[in-house]
Amino acid sequence: METSTARNKTEARRIETWIQNEMATLGITTIAGRAGVNKSTVSRWRTSVVPAAAMLFSILMSERQAPKGDMEA
Question: Which parts pass through the membrane (predicted)?
Fold first, then answer.
């Protein structure tokens, strides 16, 4: 049986992939402009903030009492 930790890691990888794909589609320059930060800041987010946020979202979603499918990435 898969543990909660393993499920969270698997879900975090799925969320991270989705975020990375969306960032690639939108473009670092566009994201930086809309966030009011330098492009290098957005590049750093890709390696530090995105994985951590994906894990946090995975944990928070696994603890929700909402019906399955609600708030999916």
Answer: none
